[in-house]
Amino acid sequence: MVYVVAELSVRPGTEAEFEAVAAELMQEVRAREPEVQLYQFTKIRGRDGVYRVIERYASEAALEKHMAEPHLRAAMEKMGPLLAARPQLEKCDPVGVA
Amino acid sequence: MVYVVAELSVRPGTEAEFEAVAAELMQEVRAREPEVQLYQFTKIRGRDGVYRVIERYASEAALEKHMAEPHLRAAMEKMGPLLAARPQLEKCDPVGVA
Predict the structure, then answer these.
(1) Which residues of chain B have pLDDT under 70?
(2) What Pfam families does this protein's entry cite (chains A, B) (predicted)?
C-alpha cells in the first residue's frame, strides 16, 4: 500500500473550473480503478486556491497504472492552464499496520 | 466529513520510539473511535524523520471529540519530547462527492 499526498495551487478565479475537472476525475478513478482505495481532492481551510489531494493505492503497481490512465492525462491537460504553481507530490509509506 | 493532514518532524534517532507510540495510538483510535474513518501515520519518502498523518472524520464533532480523547493526550505527551518542530496541521474539506 502507498499513499500519495499532493498540493495543487490554482490561479485566482479558476477554482470552480478546477473543482469541476477534479470532480469528474474522482468519478472516473472510482469507477475504473478498483485498486485506488482513496482518491480525494480537498480544499485546505485558510489557504484560498490551494488543494490537498489524498490518494491511497493498494500497491506500487496500482500507482504506476494510475499514472498512465487516459482519464488522468485528460484531466491534467485541462488542469494545467489553471495551475498557479507546479504540483507538489509526496509518496508516503504507512507506519505500522495500515 | 473533514480531513486533517498533519506534518510531524522528529529528532534524529527517535524514529523507532516515535513509530511505536504512533502504532499504539492508531490502534487505540481504530478500536475506540468509530467516527474516525481514517487515521494513518506515514513516512514521507525522501524526507528522513518527517511524517505525514492522514485523518478523516465523519463530522466536525467527531474531530472535536478526538482532540479531547485521553489516549490522544497520552500519545502527544510521549511524542512531545521527540519532535524537532511544532506539528503542522491542516483541516481540509472534500471537493465534490467525498
Answers:
(1) none
(2) ABM
